[in-house]
Structures are given as C-alpha cells and as structure tokens.
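Moderator note: this is an archived Q&A kept for reference. The question asked for a predicted structure of one protein chain; the sequence and the answer are reproduced below.
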Amino acid sequence: MELRKRYLLFFGFILLLNVSKAQNVINQKDKIIEERIDFLLDENEGGDLDYTTLFEQLSFYYNKPINLNNASEDELIGLNLLNGFQINNLLTHIVIYGKLISFEELQSIDGFTVEDIKRILPFTKVSGDLSRPVLSFKNILKEGDAQLFMRYSSVLETQKGFSPIEENEFEENPDRRYLGSPDRLYSRFRFKYANNLSFGITAEKDPGEEFFKGSQKNGFDFYSAHFFLQGFGTVKQLAIGDFQAQFGQGLTFWSGMAFGRSPNVFTLKRNPQKLRPYTSVQENLFLRGGGITLAHKQMEWTVFYSSAKVDANISSFDSLNNEFTITSLPETGFHRTPSELENKNVVDNSFLGSNLSYNHRKIKVGITAVHNQIAANYLPRQKLYNKFNRLQNENTNFGFDYNYLLKNVNFFGEISHSINGGIAYTNGLLVVLDPRLSLAIQNRKFDKDYVPLQSNAVGENTSNSNESGTFMGINAKLSPVVSLSAYADRFAFSWLRFQTDAPSQGYRIMSQLSYEPSRAMEVYFRFRQRNRGKNESETTEGVAAIVDEIKSDYRLHLAYQVTKSITLKNRIEITNYQLGDKSRERGFVIYQDLSYKQLSFPLSFSIRYAIFDTDSWNSRIYAYENDVLYAFSIPAYSGKGTRFYISSKYHISRGIDFWLRYSQTYYTDRNTIGSGKDEISGNIKSEIKAQLRFKF
C-alpha cells in the first residue's frame, strides 16, 4: 500500500506542474470520442466492442466540415453534437435574420455558449457558398472520396491455442488448438460522396481463424458490404446490403449502439436517423437486406427487411424434417475451432419492419412495427431468471414514439408492446432553465415479460425488460471557467436477474466538476458510484442471499496543450469494489500521455506510460487509448504492473498514410497471462498493429 501512496503523490505532483497558458486548442475530435466511449464502457462493462459506425460520421465532418448556413435538420442531428433546442433555434435564426456571417454570430442565438461553439468548430463552417451536392456521374468522380484500408495486428507472445501439440492429442480433441494463425487481418474499401452516397466492403479475420484454406477457402471469415443513398427528393434514404435501423427512443427497435447517460444531459434523448450504412466488423449488430425511407412533405415512411445467417448453439437436428433445435444465439463472431465452426451461420434470423412518422421541427411522432422470425425451434435453457423474457421462434413488437419542443422544454418518449409479452415505456424531459443551467428527467418501466428484439433504450439492464427507474441530471455553468455535471439514476428489478436470485433495486450516481481556464487546458474531477443487488455467493442449489454490490470510481484528469504541436494528458483513477460484508477490493491507474502533431511535419505520434495496481478483476479499470484510424483500443487494467504504448502516423505522400502501433503490458503479480487457449506463459503481453490507407 505504501508503493501505491508514493505513486499517487508523485503523479499528483506532476499533474499540477507546468500548466501551459498557450492559447492552442485541444483536439476536439479525440476528446469527444474518448468522453463518449468512457460512458459507453461504463454502461456496457466491456472494452471489446467496435465503435466504428458510431463515430465515423464525426470523423467525416472533421475532414469535411458541414456548412451551418445550408445544413438540413437531419444533417445537424447526425452531427451528434447539438441538442434539439440548438438545432431549432439555429434554423429559426437563419429563417428570420438570414445566413450566418461568422461563428461569433452563434453567441447571439439562444442555447449556444462559447463552449458549445468551441466543441463544434472543428466539424462545421460558416460559408456563403450555399450549393448542395448534385448527384451526377461527373460530380461523383470529381468530388467523391475513396479510401482503402489494410490493417494487420497480432499478439507477439505465443498463446496456448497457437502452440505446438502432438498429432494424437489434437485428433483426440481438435478443440484444444485454434485452426488458424494468431494474426488479425482487416481490409476495407469505402467510397463516399458528400453525405449523400456511400458504398463499400469490409472484411476481417479474427485471430485463430483460417485464411484462404480449410474452413475459410474464401479468405476472410467475415465480409460486410453496403450501398447507401440519402437526401434525394422523395427517396430520402435507400440502404442495400448491411445497414442499421433505428427508431424512436430505441425501445421498439434500435440496431447497434447509442449514447446514453453521460455528463452531457442532452445525450439522454435518442436522435434516430432511421436507416444508416453499417461499416463495422461486429458480427451481430447489423441488418442484412435492404430498406427505404420515402418522404412527402412532413410525412415519412420507412420499410426494411433483413435476412441473415447467424451463429446458433444446436442442441438437436431432425434430419427427416431438416429442422434445428437451438438453445442460444452466440454473439462473439469467433470461428476458430471445429466446435465454433459447427455453430457458424446455421440459422436464418429475419426482420421485417416499418415506421411511419410525422416530422415537424417542433413535433415528431412515429409508429413502428417489427416482426422477427428465427428459422429453428428456439428453446433457450430454462433458468428461473429468464422465465418471462425469452425470444420465441416468432416475435412482433409495436411502438409509438414522440418528440415535442415547447420553448425551452423538450418532451420525448416511446411506448412499446410485445405481442407475445408485456409493455415497456420510457418518457423524458429536457429543460433549459437558464443559459447556465439545464435539467434532464427520465422515467421508465419495462415489464418483465416484454421481449426486446433489438432495442437500446436508456436503462440499467443489458436488455430493456424487467426494470423500472427514474433518472435526473443537471448541467450547471458555475462561472465562465467552472462547470458542474451530475446525475442520479434509481432503478428496480421486479423479477430475478442473472446472478441475482430475487427482486432487487439499486442506484447509479455521477458528479463531475470541470475547470477550463483556456482553450488549451482542461481539468476535471469525477466521482461515480453504482450500487445494485447481487448474490452473496455463487450457488447451484437453492437461492442465494442478496447483498449490495458497490463500485465507486474517483478520477482526476488534466489535459493541456503545451505548444501547437505537443499535448500532455495526466490521469489518476481509483476504484473501490465491495460485495456485501466481504473485504473491499481496491485498484488504481496512473498514466502520462504525450501527443505530438505538427501539420507541416509528416510524422505524428502518441505515447502513454501507465502504472496500475488492482486487487481483482472486480476492481479493474478501463482506459481509452489512441489507436490507428477506425480502430479502438480500450484495455482493462487488472492486476499489478505497467503498460506502455506508442501509436504513430506517417504521411508518406499525397493520398498515402501509414500507422504503426506497439503496446506492451508488464505484470509483476503473475507468471501466466490469460486462460484457456489464450493463455501466455510469462508476464509480458505485447501487440503490434500496422495500417495502410490509400485515398483516391
């Protein structure tokens, strides 16, 4: 414990030294991505998701800023940086007073603060050129943007699943080793014209999967392709291939991820874009087929169909009738062993859905209906906690959603009904009480027998069922340089949950005090705590006693730009975990980041050195790391040791960029890392990643 104290004192001293007063601007894109992933991690409790689709639009606008003078409401919503009040007030201002002359004029519009303008500055522009993209072959070739990515990554140490094995041992149990190499391979081509046309193909091979041999004679294990049109008269959207469909507040149907509880209370409200192209490699978060949105005045009608072969755990097969009986639909996407390959793409999972909506700037209402059919006898393993909420071979959900702006108040919500089950609803309220004070309230109730198909409404449970709760949050500007964000979410579960053998309740709270004395410096202190019921111990017989599971996090973060080229970041994070009366489990992470980027120099890089010490996996801490473009590294710091990485980018020539990343984790409390076939003999784990991009 004395070692921990010395680390904390040393880095705490560094944190307060040499704060630069330079008037440079901290990279807003990286800052926004890191902030939002941080809270997505908090809600999803994992760092292995692919966030490409979620943040790709942000990167697009960073390279090609949107003109605020002729941006549509849909484009401003898609930016995901402006709330409904700001969008409505901006469009009204332009109608009444004409086009903006400069960014400074935004300060005269209700709802826009200096911080808001600073946040959107890298992604927007104010221009007198009001021309809109014209879909013609000549313009597409002249102004379209084509990019080809090729990426390679691999763990350098030998993992057990890739180590040599005697032939007779392998024949006795073929699942003891992976069939393919330890390399992860990724390739992607995408063509995009403005925000109106996109098509491309993405392919990936996971470590352990074969490549152009054996089970993967076609090369990559996963392929994804899309064609997407948007904003052309009556045909507002057209999606063919792989896509996502998102409606209302995410309750009736929402494929993919979405933002939720965060320091910015306005992320509480979902802003659906109906159809979107899918460009990630998460093998279970998309639809495959087609969809179209037709628009006439304020009315819009969306219809989509998806039919995709998905992985399934087969319990029996009736060869006479060619019928499967399955127990679950795994979502890992791994096909590395004979048993995993047996479950690959064995069942057809289809969706047919439609949404009819009325869209006015201040009022929006919609009706959604989705039918799901699984082409197999779906018989999940009987567990007491999933007695009520189980998918069946056929499922249908209907929903109604609304969004209403009344001066400085925004009402929104959705109610949904499962034909084979119960009802779920969520209702919210956003209020701008003062330019310096905003309030958010949400009330929700998801019946225990409500059956989510693909849903992602704001809530505590991993699925939108068996839950009721009330959320309250505030954003307060205490002074020109100090702001406070806080929320409290109280929830209850009327039925059992996984590892919770009785109805339970809990809460989640967060408060963050931020200090930004200049555009080059940001300091914040954050406290988060989650308390919910959990079994006191794992048991296979009887019912376990329910106790409080409490996890608390304390973070002090400082980022400052020393020069136009150099940015430093420091962080101290401490966590405490306790289950009932058991001993408290503690952990901390301290890191120092240095980033270098100069526009006139072809090389840029980011470096981190971190020290971590946690008592257990329960007290682990996640931290976002800079990575190659469209890749995400969010490791869990668990155990005792140090971690280092360097991520660099080199601009080779016009249209050609190369990234190289190396990371290494050194453990001082173990002689093996990982378990099962991923086990490494030793206390060091290293990874290398290389990426090449061609722009045409």
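Archived answer notes: Residues 228-435 form a domain with the Porin fold (CATH 2.40.160).
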